[in-house]
């Protein structure tokens, strides 16, 4: 195990070893990310399978095989989009409920509940006999997704030493990319199984769901959650266990102090809305997740086979191209695991956005020039498009993909952490729903210009990060407010009264 020390405020130092227990808990919990990624990858491949379309979406199947059908409109169907997007409406509802469930019962049991929902959804999709049963399965998967995405990144951030928090939290995103890649492999294999291939693809989610369910009984809950629920002694013992050290007094005292403040807050959602000092992390986290979804990445992950078939790729070639982008996504995420706690969050976000901007503009320009309503692009142009889509995926994988989840999980104080993180996750799921539900229609109407639409948003988000987002690298979560928001050139105005009171107290004067 690696040794290390976490710098704290003043001259205090908190022990920060990267222990086997922390690694084990992080890996097991991150299977929730694997399930998220598996669903993203599997839905795109399944919606391009003829057997699936013929059974559930016969109109789309007919349009797909009409030689003169408009390239940009052949998959445009509101029910097909609902198959992909319905999951995310359920996720918003589940995220809200799990934010309260997690505070009352802990992160660990919230993770266990998510795995049960995932299992139910996978079995419903496996045995789906009609569109209603198929959508019901998607809704159960959405409930699992909302619970998992609400609890897992916070769980990982709370058990991690500050020095390694970024790299450990990105394991969640890494497992998302692994899930996407595995889903692409599964789709490529099952597409050759007549009539039942899509069932195997959709039902395959039961395997990682079972691993997450069993694993949830072997991981610990977080010390912060235990102390928050009045289990102080258990919280101290758990902290000693995950740090593999008895020298945890300073860190435990920080958790207790944060918990004492948190337990005074009976209505954290009202606290977020009414108190100005909660607005900077709330605004930043939710806007960050809005931008994350409007990079256009989920368009590629959801509909990669559809996009490639639009360009004239055959069914197998489209799935193979989706596998390539999935592999790039998976391996590129490793870059952020090893750089985020060295380079920092902000630099990676800016560099990633600029690289993605290049990919979107080149792909949009090539399709505008060469892909008309009824033709297929040349082999050379197709290869270049795939290369620049891979460039886009490469950049997203080490920047906006993992860092959206990481930053939102670490910027809130304990008293509003569950509530604040709900708004971030809720924004993510809402925007994912909008993109999934609207993309095929947007593609039909905007054609190649849709890539320039996402490129414009990339320019806006780059400027927003440079101007408005503070760096959070290496800062203990209990000290985030003092060391980031209160000293930021813009956000510090939300804390001016508190800062003035502190200055007066230091001078020995009573606070106003």
Automatic annotation (TrEMBL):
Listed InterPro entries: MFS_dom, MFS_STP/MST-like_plant, MFS_sugar_transport-like, MFS_trans_sf, STP/PLT_plant, Sugar/inositol_transpt, Sugar_transporter_CS
Subcellular location: Membrane
Transmembrane segments: 22-42, 79-97, 109-128, 168-186, 198-220, 282-305, 317-336, 348-367, 379-398, 419-440, 446-469
PROSITE patterns documented for this protein: MFS, SUGAR_TRANSPORT_2
GO-annotated cellular components: membrane
Keywords: Membrane, Sugar transport, Symport, Transmembrane, Transmembrane helix, Transport
Coiled coil: none
One Pfam family here: Sugar_tr
Protein origin, superkingdom: Eukaryota
Membrane topology: Multi-pass membrane protein
GO molecular function annotation: monosaccharide transmembrane transporter activity; symporter activity
Keyword Nucleus: no
Domain Major facilitator superfamily (MFS) profile: 25-473
SUPFAM superfamilies named among the record's database cross-references: MFS general substrate transporter
Family indicated by similarity: Belongs to the major facilitator superfamily. Sugar transporter (TC 2.A.1.1) family.
Name of the protein described by the UniProt record: Sugar transporter 2, putative
Source organism of the structure: Theobroma cacao
